[in-house]
Specification:
2 copies of one chain form a homodimer.
Chain A (H helix, E strand, L loop, with lengths): L3 H26 L16 H13 L1 H4 L10 H7 L11 H21 L2 H4 L8 H6 L5 H19 L5
């Protein structure tokens, strides 16, 4: 059982990588124009979902306490506002690049975190609350964002039709 | 760091419970008839997705080595065959019960597994391979099924419109 935490972290990180890879593969199979379609009638477009995923992942840098966002304009367009807000959305060609850049840089950090560092608090919880709720840590954020990604990947998959 | 594995297991198990709860809530908001709709044009119906989720979760009993499936007829209809296969599908009223029963019983086991038991091999890997790949354990299955659930939950959410 001595390496149990390392093994468990590997499983969690592999799950993140696996979901990102599946989205990467889907993106490679879709033409830019297809992102203009709604994933289901009356729902979000592919552009919005891709922008939302890039924005949510970009927000992980400050949330995990490892730096600033790379593309801070994304939050207003793809998180604070809904699709069809009238705000100008970044072209798909650029969103593809943001998506790659953000995930690539995140993975650099993820690969370097020690188990101790994974279990440190994220920046949206204060020291006092963290003492009571030690599960509000970086690892929890990673697990939560992996599921967020899987959720929207299930929707983006409908663009393939 | 002494309780790091317990903390990490809590995070993983909480993520599973969270996804199941979100699906439970969605099911409570949908009438049986709504499950007859496709989640996106030309895609799976809600009936099929609910049946698939119940079947995949039911298959966790043998995969985790804790018992037999509760509803073994589900696999053929909702895993081995696609939607619109012509096979008679269980009524939504029954699928709702299967879903609850399976998850409730799974949670009984999940709550009792020790960290050592979580890191034991699942039954689809043999002893020899497991020595080389110790991440092919019960915990890995749980993480993988949580993401599978999130993926289809993202699709089921379209039934609400």
């Amino acid at each position: 059982m001595d390496n149990s935490i390392e093994l468990t972290l590997k499983i969690i990180l592999d799950a993140w990588k696996g979901q990102v890879s599946r989205v990467d593969k889907l993106l490679s199979e879709l033409a830019d124009e297809q992102f203009g379609n709604e994933v289901s009638p009356g729902s979000n477009t592919g552009v919005y979902l891709l922008g939302n995923l890039a924005a949510v992942h970009d927000a992980l840098f400050p949330l995990l306490g490892v730096g600033e966002k790379l593309y801070r304009e994304l939050e207003n367009i793809f998180i604070k506002n809904q699709d069809k807000s009238g705000l100008e959305q970044s072209p798909v060609k650029e969103l593809r690049i943001y998506w790659q850049e953000v995930n690539s840089k995140l993975l650099d950090y993820f690969g370097r975190f020690s188990p101790e560092e994974w279990l440190q608090k994220h920046t949206a919880v204060n020291e006092e609350a963290f003492k009571e709720e030690p599960h509000r840590n970086r690892l929890n954020v990673l697990v939560s964002r992996t599921n967020h990604l899987a959720y929207h990947f299930g929707q983006l998959a409908f663009l393939k039709k």
